[in-house]
């Protein structure tokens, strides 16, 4: 059996196969159909369906596959990217910054979810996340394992399409299992597979909760490289840098080694968090700024 998707037709979930043009090998695109896509379905006699068309997307949250340079659309029509952090593997704000850039470029809201509060020191969390609180980003703290502190987050995203992003091991699937134990099991039985004896390395599965919220669990994303973002796009996702840049001598200052750079000065004085500045430098280096 070839690769298939799980399509919600408003009443039930059906296995859905790319049909027509969509069945052709895609050029430059890892996936023509992404989770969250609205599609035109043709229902077949056996209850499965053909995806005849992908309707135009309100937005898409993509990463670049570094090996090929191709776009991988992680999800389409996303309302919120919820970036989950946890002390294991580590409270990685570099990855968070990367997601913030991608989400901003895609025009998608972000929520920060700190999981495993049961094994975290609150002071450490405060310190690591202070720059994000200062930017007005919503931050939620929970322990998915203990089902503790989920409510404020679930309330904030009620009725929305939420992409759960974050390192493997931070607790995304645990959270989904907390709120959708049945669905998680059912979806596990029919995970999309490739029929070519190839390992499926990445999957994204949508879980529709009773209140209409959809949580999209992602797995297997080991690297998140930016797709179609330039240095201005990076700078824009660092509002504190963008604002400080008004004081730079050059209007196209990249805030690296340029003379009279107000951003570098602010990072040295730590009015801009040095970690954020370091992230910024990494990212503009990557996008070739
Ligand atoms: N201590 C603690 N462990 C957790 C919590 N949430 C998840 N875990 C554990 O972290 C590991 C990875 O969780 P998982 O949900 O598979 O992470 P995912 O890769 O992001 O889907 C599992 O062993 C979970 O039991 C939590 O709130 N506290
Ligand atoms: Mg998982
Ligand atoms: Zn500068």
Explain what you see.
The termini are far apart. Residues 185-201 have low confidence and may be disordered. Helix content is 28%, strand content 22%. Among the domains are: 80-219, Rossmann fold, CATH 3.40.50.300; 231-286, Ribonucleotide Reductase Protein R1, domain 1 (Orthogonal Bundle). The longest helix is centred in the middle third of the chain and has 14 residues, at 93-106. It has 289 residues and is an alpha/beta fold. The chain has helices at residues 93-106, 122-134, 151-156, 172-179, 181-189, 231-236, 239-244, 262-268, 274-286; strands at 5-8, 13-18, 39-43, 49-54, 60-64, 71-76, 80-85, 109-114, 139-141, 161-165, 203-208, 214-219. Helix 4 crosses helix 5 (181-189). Strand 8, helix 2 (122-134) and strand 9 form a beta-alpha-beta unit. The strands form 3 sheets. A 6-stranded mixed β-sheet has the order 9-8-7-10-12-11, sandwiched between helices. The structure holds guanosine-5'-diphosphate, magnesium ion and zinc ion. Zinc ion binds next to helix 8.
Look at the structure and give the mean pLDDT. 88
**Major pleated sheet:** 6 strands, mixed
**Strand content range:** 15-25%
CATH topology heading of the domain at 80-219: Rossmann fold
Q: Number of DSSP strands? A: 12
End-to-end distance: 44 Å
Quaternary structure classification:
single chain
Structural class: alpha/beta
Strand neighbour order, sheet with most strands: 9-8-7-10-12-11
Number of helices: 9
Helix content: 25-40%
CATH architecture of the domain at 80-219: 3-Layer(aba) Sandwich
User: Under the CATH scheme, which class of the domain at 80-219?
Assistant: Alpha Beta
- Computed CA radius of gyration, to the nearest angstrom: 20 Å
Q: What hetero molecules are bound to the protein chains?
A: guanosine-5'-diphosphate, magnesium ion, zinc ion
Give the CATH H-level superfamily of the domain at 80-219: P-loop containing nucleotide triphosphate hydrolases
Shape: globular
Q: Uncertain runs with pLDDT below 50, 5 residues or more?
A: 185-201
Order of helix and strand elements from N to C terminus: EEEEEEEHEHEHEHHEEHHHH
């Amino acid at each position: 059996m070839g690769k298939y998707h799980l399509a919600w037709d408003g009443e039930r979930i059906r296995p859905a196969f790319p049909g027509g043009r969509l069945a052709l090998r895609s050029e430059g695109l890892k996936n023509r159909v992404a989770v969250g896509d609205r599609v035109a379905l043709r229902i077949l006699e056996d209850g499965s369906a053909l995806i005849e068309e992908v309707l135009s997307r309100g937005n898409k949250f993509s990463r670049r596959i570094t090996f090929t340079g191709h776009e991988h659309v992680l999800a389409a029509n996303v309302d919120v990217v919820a970036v989950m952090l946890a002390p294991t593997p580590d409270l990685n704000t570099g990855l968070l910054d990367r997601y913030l850039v991608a989400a901003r470029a895609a025009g998608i809201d972000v929520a920060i979810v700190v999981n495993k509060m049961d094994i975290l020191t609150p002071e450490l969390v405060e310190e690591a996340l202070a720059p994000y609180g200062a930017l007005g980003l919503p931050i939620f703290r929970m322990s998915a394992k203990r089902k503790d502190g989920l409510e404020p987050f679930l309330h904030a995203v009620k009725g929305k399409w939420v992409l759960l992003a974050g390192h493997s091991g931070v607790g995304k699937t645990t959270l989904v299992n907390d709120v959708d134990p049945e669905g998680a099991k059912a979806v596990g039985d029919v995970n999309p597979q490739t029929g070519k004896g190839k390992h499926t390395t990445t999957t994204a599965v949508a879980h529709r909760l009773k209140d209409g919220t959809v949580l999209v669990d992602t797995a297997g994303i080991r690297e998140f490289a930016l797709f179609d973002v330039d240095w201005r796009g990076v700078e824009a996702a660092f509002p504190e840098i963008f604002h400080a840049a008004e004081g730079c001598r050059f209007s196209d200052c990249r805030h690296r080694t340029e003379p009279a750079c107000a951003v570098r000065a602010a990072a040295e004085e730590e009015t801009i968090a040095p970690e954020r500045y370091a992230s910024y430098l990494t990212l503009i280096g990557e996008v070739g700024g």
